[in-house]
Design brief:
The protein is α/β, with parallel strands linked by helices. It has 15 helices and 14 strands. Strands 3-4-2-1-5-6-7-8 form an 8-stranded mixed sheet, with helices on both faces. The protein has a 6-stranded parallel sheet with strand order 11-10-9-12-13-14, sandwiched between helices. Helix 6 links the parallel strand 7 and strand 8. Helix 4 packs antiparallel against helix 5 and helix 8 crosses helix 13. It is globular and about 65 Å long.
Length: 387
């Protein structure tokens, strides 16, 4: 970088972050690291219980007080427009990146008035989320179209991580949509982490180890994993299920597993990424039942660890996992059938295919795609980005 070149200040806003957040927190962290490595200045603003401002490996992170969303299991949101507007004016961003489609949509209009190019990252589909909360499909589609039209008008660009996520914007004729996939840490997530000792610890004498890495909330449909293990048990498959995640549905799921005497182990939120990668490598199959997932980072991490995935056919994950797993209808019976089909494939072959698929999704490619969406150059070939 020459003395005349100014570091691009990329201010990022995100809602629905908790200490136990999974995919979104990982994506924010990795993209921030990548922006730094590419010679820019990322600033992340998130809600929390108190105000803070610190320098981290993903850049500057500012926390503003935000209330807990009732019934969400601890999710907080940024609601103080006046304080956030003042902070944005103080930071004077060159680019704005918003990972939220609810209380922060007004920032698109702010950016337009301030002449700051702004992108909204679509981490979930509006109609998909509405449907998982029980809104009829037709009404969900109409509501989503109205919300998406406003978002497409408010922001310079809409960033979608998959073609599946892109469809709801193309449906309304939006012309400012670009695609930028997320990525996976291919060094941390590796098939070499597979441990027979760890497998035995969780199998408890059974033969097949299933893993669910998910927030335990209604839109993720974690109950489908319990339906799957019950069906496999009925079919004579000696399988155990490990659940890595926490959320508002946990107590109910634990009660169900206990009442039905299902071989399910609830670990809660696994904060340490190394420990989580060990679990992902130890499993035989990873389950991804969320029907509204627009990418599925935990599923991609499982693939990188050599573990194939059974995913909801209603989500974007079939597009991500390709032939390294199977898509299933949204029933326990269908998921169990897909698990049995995958188990019927040669062990080494299915694990090698999972790893090959994941290698298409390094974070270096993701960072480059997001920078391109911002019309911001990569000044150094993204050195140091973990792939």
């Amino acid at each position: 970088m020459t003395g005349r070149e100014r570091r691009t200040v990329i201010v990022r806003l995100a809602n629905f972050i908790t200490p136990s957040s999974g995919g979104l927190r990982t994506a924010l962290d990795e993209l921030g690291r990548g922006y730094l490595a590419a010679g820019h200045e990322p600033v992340l603003i998130v809600p929390g219980d108190t105000r803070s401002d610190e320098r981290t490996e993903q850049g500057r992170v500012i926390t503003l007080p935000g209330p807990v969303l009732p019934g969400s299991g601890g999710y907080r949101v940024l609601t103080g427009r006046r304080s956030l507007r003042h902070l944005l004016e103080t930071l004077r961003p060159d680019r704005l990146e918003v990972s939220d489609r609810t209380t922060l949509r007004w920032t698109g209009q702010w950016a337009r008035r301030a002449r700051v190019p702004a992108v909204m990252v679509s981490h979930e589909t509006a109609d998909g989320v509405l449907r998982t909360w029980g809104v009829p499909a037709a009404a969900a589609g109409r509501t989503a179209d109205r919300l998406n039209a406003r978002s497409a008008h408010a922001y310079t660009r809409i960033v979608c991580t998959t073609q599946w996520a892109e469809r709801e914007f193309l449906r309304i004729g939006a012309r400012n949509v670009v695609r930028a996939p997320l990525g996976v840490d291919l060094r941390r997530c590796s098939p070499h982490r597979r441990s027979t000792v760890l497998r035995a610890r969780h199998l408890h004498g059974r033969d097949v180890l299933l893993l669910l890495c998910s927030r335990l909330s209604v839109e993720k449909r974690p109950g489908r994993a319990l339906e799957t293990i019950a069906e496999l048990r009925h079919r004579g498959v000696r399988a155990a299920l490990v659940v890595a995640g926490d959320g508002p549905l946990r107590a109910g799921l634990e009660n169900t597993a206990r009442a039905r005497r299902l071989p399910v182990e609830f670990l809660g939120h696994v904060r340490d990424r190394e420990t989580l990668a060990d679990l992902q490598a130890a499993a035989d199959i990873c389950l991804a039942p969320g029907p509204a997932e627009t990418f599925g980072l935990s599923a991609l991490e499982a693939l990188a660890c050599g573990t194939p995935v059974v995913a909801s056919e209603s989500s974007a994950l079939p597009e991500v996992i390709g032939g390294a797993g199977l898509a299933a209808a949204d029933t326990g019976e269908a998921f169990a059938a897909a698990v049995r089909e995958l188990l019927g494939r040669p062990h080494d072959g299915r694990r090698a295919e999972a790893r090959r698929r994941a290698e298409l999704f390094g974070w270096d490619r993701s960072v480059a795609a997001f920078l391109a969406a911002h019309d911001v150059p990569d000044r150094g070939g993204i050195p140091g980005v973990r792939t």
